[in-house]
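$ ./design --mode recover --in tokens.txt
reading tokens...
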């Protein structure tokens, strides 16, 4: 059993990388664990005016409640992790975007006059859809193939040719900036939807759309977390081995 600690100086992203179940605690207190995962628990609590000791009690409770469901993404080879992100999270985004956009368009037509915030939600989601499509293509065509190439070279004691982008840190820096933008956009969407709680006069389409947006944001958080807190730092470390 892991020793209970009050380690508030450990970074949020590290807690989530070690045990993804802790993400639920950070989400509950509206602490961003994906884009801003490089802050310590103490810093995040101070900013939010939260009791860090109470938060750490909840985190330790989760860590020590061992279940067979925890996936140890940190132990995965990087090429497998990149493949998993692409097949699971990129495909999820591609499948859900047209459905959610269709539903939002319908809500704007039917309820937009009574609920003008729907137009802003639709605008934000449409912008996110376009940015994510471009972002994922850059990962699939540029960054992920280079990570896979490095993994193969290490296994075969080979060499890696210097890529056109110079160092893996360059595309990673760009991807992280784009992650920040999506994090901001979804914070606005969460605020406008009252944290995905449909209004009292909501029809079934309204309820389903908000539930889908909620699920989409949760998937995006895991997606960004796997990249920012595990795949990207490990890819930088791997590249340094070829220096």
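writing sequence...
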């Amino acid at each position: 059993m892991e020793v209970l600690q009050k380690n508030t100086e450990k970074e949020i992203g590290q807690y989530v990388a070690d045990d993804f179940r802790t993400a639920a605690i950070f989400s509950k207190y509206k602490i961003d664990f994906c884009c801003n995962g490089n802050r310590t628990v103490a810093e995040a609590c101070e900013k939010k005016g939260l009791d860090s000791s109470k938060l750490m009690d909840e985190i330790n409770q989760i860590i020590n409640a061992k279940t067979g469901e925890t996936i140890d993404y940190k132990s995965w080879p990087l090429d497998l992790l990149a493949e998993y992100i692409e097949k699971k999270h990129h495909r999820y985004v591609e499948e859900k975007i047209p459905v959610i956009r269709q539903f939002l368009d319908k809500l704007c037509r039917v309820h937009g006059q009574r609920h003008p915030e729907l137009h802003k939600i639709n605008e934000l989601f449409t912008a996110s859809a376009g940015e994510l499509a471009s972002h994922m293509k850059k990962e699939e065509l540029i960054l992920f193939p280079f990570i896979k190439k490095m993994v193969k070279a290490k296994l075969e004691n080979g060499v890696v040719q210097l890529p056109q982008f110079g160092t893996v840190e360059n595309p990673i820096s760009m991807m992280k900036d784009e992650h920040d933008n999506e994090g901001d956009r979804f914070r606005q969407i969460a605020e406008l939807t009252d944290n995905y709680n449909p209004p009292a006069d909501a029809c079934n389409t309204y309820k389903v759309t908000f539930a889908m947006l909620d699920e989409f944001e949760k998937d995006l958080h895991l997606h960004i977390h796997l990249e920012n807190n595990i795949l990207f730092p490990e890819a930088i470390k791997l590249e340094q081995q070829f220096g």
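exit 0
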